[in-house]
Design a protein that fits this description.
The structure is a homodimer. Chain A contains ten helices and no strands. Chain A is mainly alpha-helical. The longest helix of chain A has 25 residues. The N and C termini of chain A lie far apart (76 Å). About 3% of the residues of chain A have low confidence. At the A-B interface, α6, α8, α9 and α10 of A face α6, α8, α9 and α10 of B.
Chain lengths: 205, 205
């Protein structure tokens, strides 16, 4: 014999204070990856969770507040991943770069959000997002420091450019290999940063 | 003695068919660079031009139609710039890369738009934007072909990653040199693609 729950308990679950914030972030992350950074809307999260708009506005007064909380979450995850990659025996740029690109490919819309997509150019939120990106850059640079001497500003910028550019091209499905899995293709492309296209016998310029 | 124009002629100019489209694209480009790709709104363009919404919807039925027209314009400009760069004596990746990055830095929001910012992930418009990007990639790859042999898929992806990644980091004001002008900094970073960080005596890994 089936017991049917009252409708209210299914459509309007009650959340404790901390619970609702966590549930909202999880729902926001799903919405983000489904539709993209420009479609992150607090009202839609409230609708999906079956809670009132004001209940959610209490935690996230607007889209940018919600976006920044997600960026904070993503930055913590990416930092942990990079720290773990640097702790492995095979450190240096290749290991870090592979970990970096894997994170972006696994969380494409979050990664684009972390790079400021959907913020108004001059907003405070855009500046806060930029500061969080700078922390990731410093982590990348410092981890490279500990292995084989500090890279110069040019070299550090170059390496971040390669990793970021490749991540974006893979996210946008702009580039992919027809014969290699993404991880091997990523490694092959990142490897070129070491000896360059001239050193690798590729067409140079 | 001053002659004051009637208010109507200042706030509601009349446009010929082709004129309005061009005027709307120019106004859209200004709005785009002022606020960012997620804030491109047909109604706001109509307001700025002092024309009715339906008059503009006739040309651009929605935000994505307007965005695609801007992307088309940007793709034509960037293609012309790359073709001119390839025609100069100093061709190869460095000249092309510098031209590419300069375009992005001069048109930051347009460049982000060209890379799909503000589109819903699965939209037709996002796919059309991706096709236009692919044309730019082929142009870059083909121009490199004509100078010193075809770069492999890995090398071409690597070079596009460096140029795209650096462009994005510069646009986001994430990286800049304190002692070099942007053009010299760009050249120094792009140069590393040739011999890599190991070949340049930088920290490798």
């Amino acid at each position: 014999m089936e017991v049917s729950l009252p409708t209210k308990s299914r459509t309007q679950p009650s959340y404790h204070h901390g619970n609702l914030r966590e549930a909202a972030l999880a729902a926001a992350r799903t919405l983000l990856e489904e539709r993209g950074p420009s479609f992150l809307v607090v009202k839609e999260i409230a609708r999906r969770l079956g809670v009132s708009d004001p209940a959610l506005y209490h935690h996230f007064p607007n889209r940018d507040a919600l976006a920044l909380a997600l960026i904070q979450q993503g930055s913590t995850e990416l930092s942990n991943i990079l720290v773990r990659a640097a702790e492995k025996s095979e450190t240096g740029f290749l290991g870090l770069g592979e970990a970096y690109v894997s994170f972006a490919v696994a969380n494409p819309a979050l990664y684009r959000l972390m790079f400021g997509e959907g913020f108004a150019i001059t907003s405070n939120a855009a500046r806060e997002a930029s500061t969080l990106r700078q922390n990731i850059y410093r982590l990348l640079k410092d981890r490279m420091d500990t292995t084989k001497g500090a890279p110069s500003l040019h070299a550090a910028t170059f390496l971040w450019s390669v990793a970021h550019g490749l991540a974006m091209l893979l996210i946008d499905k702009q580039m992919h290999s027809t014969d290699l899995p993404t991880a091997d293709f990523t490694r092959a492309v990142l490897s070129l940063a070491r000896y360059g296209i001239a050193g690798s016998g590729q067409a140079d310029g």
